[in-house]
Amino acid sequence: MGKLTVICLVWLLLFAVTLILIDEQLSVNELEQTSNGAQRQERDNGTSQSSGFVALQVNGNLTDDFWERGVNDLPVLTVAVSYVVENVGNVSADVITVEIALDSVYYSTETVYDLLPNSEFAESISFSVEYDQSKTVEIEASCDDVTDFWSHTVDAVLPRHFSLGVSKFFVTPDEQCVQSVYGEIASDIFFVHWIAIRDWVGRNIDYVDDEDVHGVGEFWQLGRETLESRTGDCEDFAILLCSLLRADEWSIEDVYVVIGQNDVGNYHAWVKVKIPFVGWYNIEPQLDGWNTLVGDLVALHGYTAIYNFNDQYFTEL
Asked: Where are the domains of the chain?
């Protein structure tokens, strides 16, 4: 065998060994990469499974509202608000604090324990708003540094027209202004009370159409508003007179505001009282005491009563 042949064989052998070593190194690298990838995947999965979170969501809605008499005898709108606090996270919320405020003033606090994921806590509150005022309810739920907030503004706009459910709240015998004026009238009474009171109303309140004062065709006033402005139209006179007679301790069975209508469809308001030994008598509140009997009969001629109401009763005739 020649020297050249030996050299070629040796070169081929070295080349083969080199190829084998390179292939083994590539296999080792691929195995390490696969192993490292699996380890990273396991680590990532573990992180995903262990990084639980709490997320809160607060929602609410107005579920009921109705008018009633407030402590000062003036109408208030009482509302019921329902709210829900939901845990939309993936772990339990250990302690949730729910704080409620009205016009940013503290109202109440609720504490909710162990609220599970996709579970909710539901509750309701009620509060009153004075007529023609507004009030904002604010509900905030918090758990550690997680919070959510919901708010709603209630506008208590008093209906200023005839309303079956609200009309009686316009008669306010215990309201402060009504009581004060009644006291002034009563201190000077030397004859029949109801005539003296109707005389005061007829002489001290001026008739002005709602359109001229309020810019609308119909705007019922509370007794205190009529006393403050010293003006009103027919129902304002009647409401004030009924309030003053009730302040004079007339029974709720014996004095009413009357809404009536004549043959041509015009509406009018007056007062009727039940006089002992006489019976029911209709008063035109815009007239003074000298118009008792004849003046009242002439002024109310042609009107038929449709509704009666006072501060307690409402009756459709």
From this structure: 56-156, 167-316
